[in-house]
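Run log, item B.
One chain of 583 residues. Sequence copied directly from the ordering sheet:
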Amino acid sequence: MLLEHINHYNNLHFAIGFTNVAQEAPHYHKEMELVLVLRGYARCKVHHQDFYIEAGDMFTVDTKDLHYIYESSEDVIMLQFHVDVAYFSDTYPNIDVMFFVCEDIEKEAPQRHQRLHNKISFLAHHIAEMMMLCQKGNNDKLLAQKLREFLFIMVDKFQAFFIENNEVHHGKEDINPLDLERLYRIMHYMYTNYEKKITLEDIVEMEHLSMHYISHFIKKTSGLSFQNLLNYIRVEQAEKLLNENKLTLTQISEFCGFSSLTYFNKCFATWHHVTPAQYRKQKRPQQRTFHDPIDYSEALMLLQSYLNTDLPDAAKIEPGYAANHILIPIQSHYQRTKSFHKAFPLHILIKTPQELMKAVYYRNELRLLSPDTITIAKSALSDENDTNQILYGLKRSGIDTLVKENSDISSVRKASIKTVAEAFAHVLAKPDMKIRLFGKSCALFTQNGLPTPFYSLYAAFNGLEGMIAEQQRQYLLISGEDWTSLIMYQADSEIDLNFHLQFNPSNCPSCIIKKTFGANQNIDAATKLLGFPQQFDHNIRRHLVHFASGTTELIPSSDFTNFRMNLAVEPNTLVILELQQNA
């Protein structure tokens, strides 16, 4: 059976492991395959192309491509990685027909060759990390994130191709992403209809463009004319049927959409340099065999070199691309878990009479935050009449309170929080904590009544509605009825964190509202500039509150490139994106 089934790791839509295959019969699978040679050498054939690979080389096999490895050295060790790319088709339409080209072809120009080599080194580091995580176990969430990052790297860096002299090369660097998307849309149509009669007029009607434009477009972007590209796809399918050896040559010719057996012979020979009949008679491996068992400790040591090797600078990979990145596919529908507000409730604690007295003057701010509970310690109650009047005033403002014995109130963990990003990290670690109304550490207001990073954070929280769809270490995604919200933060003080949003083309947001709370957009930084005064007049206080509330931007859909958005979050910064969903 040519179609091979791949067992996935923990149902995570990929498989990874070491192999020392000596030879294997021609086969294909629905998964894309990537092979990194750690030691030794081998030959591999993917459709009509034959490659010699040795230590440090990498090659890819696209989904359903016929391929096999043969004549490998006895000491060969390879890292083999399979990915079920079809699972990610909502994020990357037409991914099942994309050509991923990682082969480091020596005939490339020196500068282009070096850029490709740098990108391959980065990719090898990434899959080496995934293999080590699998070895350690209990890393499914991180592996799922790494898998999405891998797909992003492949689509962003390796999906372009160009066919020249019957060889598939890494694509042109100046190709427009929208052009590449159109090319794959055309190819998807060819792959799903190759057995039928397909004309250039069919493509013209599908793309709503002129005959002249489409004809030149296909040649310019793929390197092949419309008819030659279609023939290449038909020859791919014919090769599988020839290896199955169940149909006659005439039947294969008709099944693959060729107009005659003579034309089939001509097209097949163009790519394979032999006729279909001669190809069928050629000797190929008939089964998979291996060399002596692999020493896994030795294989892991070989893999370490890809983890310890210094990666090329981001600028050497491509301008604007950084290793410290996170991919977030924005989908149309999510499996929702729990309410965002129930997951991060606001529990306010009032412990002293002075705090209770001041609470009345902050009732408008408290109402804005919509706290889940306001707990008052009995130690905060003074004169009974004054207390009743305060509680009545709060209740008239729509704020309910609860009085508890001091012993029933858990203490608030002290921490030095200076930015909204740090406050968010603190809340993620302890979402049910109680927060003081006034104080020096975990409080909503400073002792002189200025808003803290916690106030800014909970005020931003109150504007978000929906269910938590995804929660990772550096971001939180909330799915609502008409809006999807994304909270991203970088609490590290040294390096930017690069987020890459991938939108579903059928549901790309019409606009995005971006709210940023930077490292210096807080009261502590502002009062430091003012010399830490003890008192503020009303006007200064008003501007300080506005200063701590972050900045807001409107981002139209015209700013998205190829249904993607790249966003760098600076150190100690929190960013909230609200994405308006199209109907």
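Observations after the first pass:
- The radius of gyration is 30 Å.
- Residues 309-323, 407-412 have pLDDT under 50 and may be disordered.
Flagged for discussion on Thursday.
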